[in-house]
Structure formats: structure tokens, C-alpha cells
Write a structure and sequence with these properties.
Elements: H1 8-38, H2 43-55, H3 59-86, H4 91-100, H5 103-121
Length: about 160
């Protein structure tokens, strides 16, 4: 499915994820280029060594770096589960894309592809009017409400 085939809320989410992915790629790419230009004299290995050193130099940078690594691990698990559920191929590329460029870019692209798959399946995201209070269904297209099954050995009235 392509973006031109997606409508409504699914299209809005796809556009949001796509724009966020492009913005994240542009911003993080520009920062990466600036860092490499500043450290070009160290060579390829030295650039990587300097990056890790700078990322772990003080408590503030350690905090940010550790937070990113932990959220990357959690989002990786989410991406694997969702890719299996929705049939998204090459999930490893989205996971490897986080340290290669930026988590904000690779995760946004994953969410874009995920939303396309959801739209193609016709199971769009639940909105405020799609679910009644206390979990009751309101008849959303393609949704089968949960049924209460009687326990074995009990009589139904």
C-alpha cells in the first residue's frame, strides 16, 4: 500500500511519521556531519573513539546516552513484536538504523511503515469515539465485540 491509497486518520499519522523521520534525519545528519568534520584529523576509528569518549565524559552525557540505549532496547522489542504481528519485513534494518543515524529517524520510519500496514489491514487506530466507556465496543468497522461466555456447568436464563 502506498500513501496515496491511505485516507483519514491513517494518512495523517503516516504524514506525521514521515515528516518527523525526515526532520530527524536532517537534524541528526547535520549534527553527525559537524562532528565528523570537527574530528576528521583522527581518522575513521578516531572519530568513533572520540564520539564514544564525548558521549561518556560527564554525568549529563552519560545520563542522556544511557537513556537512549535503554529506550532503543525497549523500542527494538516493540518493533520486533509489531513486525511479526503485521508482517513488516527487515525489522533488523530499523533497529540497526538507530545507532547508525538516529533513533528518532529509524523509529519514525518504522512507525510510518507500521501505519501503512495497519491501514492496509483496515484496522486503523482506535479514536476517542471508537470505544465506549468501560471498554464496550461501539461497532467500529471490522471489530467484533467481546462476548461473555458462560462457565461450564451453569445454566443460562
Amino acid at each position: 500500500m502506498r500513501l496515496r491509497d491511505v485516507h483519514g486518520r491513517d494518512r495523517s499519522l503516516c504524514v506525521f511519521y514521515g515528516l518527523f523521520g525526515l526532520a530527524g534525519t536532517a537534524v541528526m545528519g547535520a549534527l553527525a556531519v559537524a562532528f565528523v568534520r570537527e574530528n576528521v584529523d583522527a581518522g575513521p576509528y578516531g572519530v568513533l573513539r572520540n564520539f564514544v569518549h564525548d558521549a561518556l565524559t560527564n554525568l549529563a552525557s552519560q545520563f542522556v546516552y544511557a537513556d537512549l540505549v535503554l529506550i532503543w532496547a525497549a523500542l527494538s522489542a516493540f518493533m520486533v513484536v509489531e513486525s511479526r504481528r503485521l508482517g513488516i519485513r527487515y525489522v533488523w534494518a530499523y533497529i540497526a538504523g538507530a545507532p547508525a543515524l538516529a533513533l528518532c529517524a529509524s523509529f519514525s520510519v518504522f512507525m510510518y511503515v507500521r501505519q501503512l500496514k495497519i491501514a492496509a489491514a483496515g484496522t486503523g487506530p482506535a479514536g476517542l469515539g471508537d470505544v465506549a466507556p468501560f471498554g464496550g465496543a461501539t461497532g467500529r468497522k471490522g471489530h467484533q465485540p467481546d462476548t461473555v461466555r458462560p462457565r461450564a456447568g451453569r445454566r443460562q436464563a
